[in-house]
Amino acid sequence: MFVFFSLVHFMTHFNFFMNLLLVFELMGFCVFLFCMNLSFVSFSEMGLYFSIVILTFSVCETVLGMALLVSAARYTGRVNVKSFSFLGF
To answer: Which superkingdom is the protein from (predicted)?
Structure first.
């Protein structure tokens, strides 16, 4: 359900890069919760480790996105999504 709302927000408010980072973080957290739920239902120890790996990748993705945002804000002064697009649409 959170994935649906994050995709709706992504389709309607994609002007700023920070909004995209928040949506991707929410989607990563939803995948983490889904993996945790599956591991508790199946009583699997491997599912817990897999969910921690998913959470680690999600945090690394967020940190890299924030670094890109800060770098672009210092270099160009703009944080719009269109400033990151090479296609220009």
So the answer is: Eukaryota
